[in-house]
Amino acid sequence: MNEVNETQEEVTNQTQEDYNDTGEKNNEEIEESAKQQEGSTDELKTLQEKIEQLQKELEAKEDRLLRIQAEYDNYRKRTRNEMEALKEYGSQDLATELLPALDNFERALQSNVTSEDGKALLQGVEMVYKSILDTFKNAGIEPIEAVGKEFDPHEHHAVIQGNDDQYDSNIVIEELQKGYKLKDRVIRPAMVKVNQ
Fold first, then answer.
1. What does DSSP say about strands 190-195 and 156-162: parallel, antiparallel, or unpaired?
2. Which domain covers residue 104, as residue numbers?
3. Which stretches of the chain drop beneath a pLDDT of 50?
4. % of the chain surpassing 90 pLDDT
5. What digits encode the pLDDT tens for the residues 58-103?
6. Are residues 107 and 85 part of one domain?
7. At which of 72, 89, 106 does a domain end?
8. Is 130 inside a domain boundary?
9. What span, in angstroms and rounded, lies between the C-alpha atoms of 159 and 148?
10. Which burial class, exposed, middle or buried, applies to 88 when counting CB atoms under 10 A from its CB (0-12, 13-18, 19+)?
11. Region Disordered: what ranges (predicted)?
12. Is 77 inside any structural domain?
C-alpha cells in the first residue's frame, strides 16, 4: 500500500507541477496576448489617424480640383464671349477712324459747284461716299436717326438748344454731325440741336 500511496503522491506532485507549469504558461500566454492586443490597438489607432489624415488630404485636393475646374470654365466662357464680341464689334475701331473722312465727304457733297468739271468731280465723290456707306451697312454700321426724334442722351449729344414752334419740347430739330451705331453699340453720338 505504501507503493500505491507513493505512486499517488508522485502523480499528485506531478499533476501539481504540471498544473503550476500550465498556470505559469497560461499567465505568460495571457500577458503576451495582452501585449499583442495593446500593440494591435496602438497600431489600429495609428492606422485610423493615418486614414483620417489621408481623407483630409483627399478632400483638400478634391476641393482644389473643383476650384481649378471652375476657374477654367470661367476662363473658357470669358474667352468665348471676348471672341464673339471681337467678331461682332471688331470693325468698330476702323469705323471710328474712318468717320472723320466720311464727314469730309459729306461736307464736299454740300458744296455748290457750277462748272461741268466740278459736277463730274462731285459725282465721283458721291459714288465713293455711297460706297463707304454701303461697306459700313454691310459691317452693321448705320447712321443714327436724329432730326424729329426725341432727344436720347445715349444716341445724341446736345450742343445747342433752340426754339422752334414746329417741334415739341425735347425733340431734335437739327443734326450738326451724324452719329453712327454698330449693331446696338453707339460708335459716335449724333451732335444735335434740341428744342426747348
1. parallel
2. 90-195
3. none
4. 31
5. 999 999 999 999 999 999 999 998 888 777 777 788 888 889 989 8
6. no
7. 89
8. yes
9. 16
10. middle
11. 1-43
12. yes
